[in-house]
């Protein structure tokens, strides 16, 4: 969730907030799933809420953080893509993968739900003019396409950094995602669980940068990877 707009007025009346669930929409494409549903619901609102939904590419940097770059994706149909919610209402939204190509590897996308500003009426409170405190929200939820295929990492490079740290660059050349939150590294026979770059799963075709304490640069023969349980 990111706060993108705030209108400061004479009185603090917060409204026009909403929620989306589930926050991660999983489609098991290996089982033929191509359609899912999310729910948009208001949170104690006294005025209507307008929400727009769209799908974008989910682009990560080398450290595993989602970039702000928004590239529209045309492989999904979202219906309805524009919603007007009245107080107490909820709305179901259908998300359909509309691609004839077979999904051969795990993929992830951004499902963005964006609040759209509606005109706020001026209200009279005695002799003082009162205007709402307009809070516009954007939720970047996730659409995950799961193939059920195993994920694995391949050594790319390593170098020594300052402060007794070492950098390790890896690449996912497999068809399955690698859950980074439960990932561990075996370096020279030592199990390492504390390192950077664990924010999001490493998807097929992506590279990731890990930094951790180690006394020398590593080679492909020095490094092995494993996961403890099921990651995100």
Write the layout of secondary structure elements.
Layout lengths: L1 E6 L6 E2 L2 E4 L2 E5 L6 E8 L6 E9 L18 E4 L2 E4 L5 E7 L9 E10 L6 E3 L2 E3 L2 E14 L7 E7 L4 E7 L11 E5 L2 E3 L14 E7 L9 E5 L5
Parallel strand pairs: 2-13, 4-13
Antiparallel strand pairs: 1-13, 3-5, 5-9, 6-8, 6-10, 7-9, 10-13, 11-12, 14-15, 15-18, 16-17, 16-19
Reported CATH architecture of the largest domain: Sandwich
As residue ranges, the low-confidence spans are 1-16, 128-133
Q: State the helix count.
A: 0
Principal-axis shape equals elongated
Radius of gyration: 22 Å
CATH fold type of the largest domain: Immunoglobulin-like
Order of helices and strands: EEEEEEEEEEEEEEEEEEE
**CATH level 1 class label of the largest domain:** Mainly Beta
Main structural class: mainly beta
**How many domain modules?**
2
**What proportion strand?**
over 45%
Mean pLDDT: 86
> What multimeric state do the chains show?
single chain
Helix residue percentage: under 10%
Number of beta strands: 19
Ends distance: 18 Å
Query: Largest sheet at a glance?
Result: 7 strands, mixed
CATH superfamily of the largest domain: Immunoglobulins
Structural description of this entry:
The chain is elongated, with a radius of gyration of 22 Å. It is built from no helices and 19 strands. Mean pLDDT is 86; it is low at 1-16 and 128-133. The chain folds into 2 domains: 2-146, Sandwich (Immunoglobulin-like); 154-224, 2-Layer Sandwich (Alpha-Beta Plaits). It is mainly beta.
